[in-house]
Automatic annotation (TrEMBL):
Enzyme Commission designation: 1.11.1.7
Entry cofactors: Ca(2+); heme b
Catalytic activity entry: 2 a phenolic donor + H2O2 = 2 a phenolic radical donor + 2 H2O
Keyword Nucleotide-binding on entry: no
Enzyme class: oxidoreductase
Top-level taxon of origin: Eukaryota
Family the UniProt entry places it in: Belongs to the peroxidase family.
Protein name (record): peroxidase
Length: 97
């Protein structure tokens, strides 16, 4: 097996912004272990079903709502707040390794 820089989470329409990912999940075509958990978990299974069965516009609309909410989360940075923007995601900037 060779490594690749890219792994598509949606192998059917990998470059389209649509709801095919959710359709794939219901067909057990998830790439990651966490993908299959979305279908099994009673908290997320109804969302997977709604996005899979509904028109792609429903997914795109909800994605836009989610992105708007993320804008308001705020990043913890600066000396008076606890947090940092990591240079390497898997390592803290402030700890020596």
């Amino acid at each position: 097996m060779t490594s690749s820089e890219t792994v598509y989470l949606d192998v059917v329409t990998p470059i389209a912004f649509d709801n095919q990912y959710y359709i794939n999940l219901r067909k057990n075509m998830g790439v990651l272990t966490t993908d299959s958990e979305l279908v099994k978990d009673p908290r997320t299974a109804p969302l997977v079903a709604a996005f899979a069965e509904g028109p792609p516009q429903i997914f795109r609309q909800q994605f836009a709502v989610s992105m708007a909410k993320l804008v308001n989360v705020g990043v913890l940075t600066g000396e008076d707040r606890v947090g940092e923007i990591r240079k390497v995601c898997s390592k803290s900037n402030s700890r020596a390794y």
